Amino acid sequence: MRERWLVRATREAGRGAGLGLVILLGVIVVLPFLYMVTTSLMDEFEVLRTPPAVLPAHPQFGNYAAALTALPFWRFFLNSGIVSLCVVAGQLATSATAAYAFARLRFPGRDRVFLLFLSVLMVPAVVLLIPRFLIVNALGWVDSYAGLISTELVTVWGIFLLRQFFLTLPRELEDAARLDGAGEWQVFWKVVLPLSKPALATVAVFGFVDQWKSFLWPLVVTRSVRMQVVEVGIASFHGMYGSNWPFQMAAAVMAVLPLAILLILAQRYFVGGIQLTRAS
User: Which residues of 100-134 are buried (b: 16+ CB within 10 A; e: fewer)?
Assistant: First the structure.
């Protein structure tokens, strides 16, 4: 009886310790965001006070309106939205078709080509920065949506994830569709894609987040203020208002807000895609 009690107590202690660790890690992750929000509501000189203030004495909600009017942030948000949505649409199209080919179609050298695709993941993005710019510049797409979007339409990670997901789908469903007279495109469009919504949503969420927070490529390929995206706009904002941290934090909060809303709305599909996708 005593041994059972000790085992139960040990299990409960382990669960309590695990829960405490999860809560601690959650606080560590959330704390910078909370600091960003509180700082965005402070006065310009309140941030520099010693000791530093934790909460604003008098919340300055006008910092958000001032940050929006200091630079054309609405234009930056529009540019980021257009680029992110177009890139997500392109990545879903290229990733789904390529992944289906690697997962279901048989052609010479399929596995070797797939390994060649995966090897691209080992190449640092900064190495391709100059060649990408030279190609875009030769096409006359510098400082345009075409230049921002065209180089991001293919994601090797998305192809890999969808291929692994397609391999988990039962082939019997596809064979049944073929027996009913469906062609390869109909099997892909009407059978495979409807079953792959969690994985497609995962690729879409990651693609949107990656493009929304993209900084280096938009910085290189844009010239005018009207074509800047949110991240480049925030960097320009820092150059103009280097000492005004509340304004900068207000701009950062507004940049993070669309991503937070997206992750909350797509959480069910996102988690489902991670759980159902496994290596074959």
Answer: bbbbbeeeeeeeeebeebeeeeeeeeeeeeeebbe
Query: What letter does residue 223 receive in the DSSP assignment?
Result: -
Asked if residue 254 lies in contact with residue 74, where contact means CB atoms within 8 angstroms, the answer is no
The CATH number assigned to the domain holding 171 equals: 1.10.3720.10
Structural domain of 238: 62-276
Q: Is 180 exposed, middle or buried (0-12, 13-18, 19+ CB in 10 A)?
A: exposed
Please say whether the beta carbons of 216 and 126 come within 8 A.
yes
Place of tokens 């640092």: 124
Q: How many CB atoms lie within 10 A of CB 69?
A: 10
Contact by Cβ (8 Å): 150, 87? no
Neighbours of 161 (CB within 10 A): 21
Q: What is the domain count for the chain?
A: 1
Per-residue pLDDT at 279:
43
pLDDT tens digits, 127-146: 889 999 999 999 999 999 99
Q: What is the mean pLDDT of each run of 10 residues along the chain (280 residues)?
A: 64 76 86 88 79 79 85 91 96 95 91 90 88 94 95 93 91 89 90 90 90 93 92 82 80 89 78 54
DSSP letters along 238-260, please? HHHSTT-HHHHHHHHHHHHHHHH
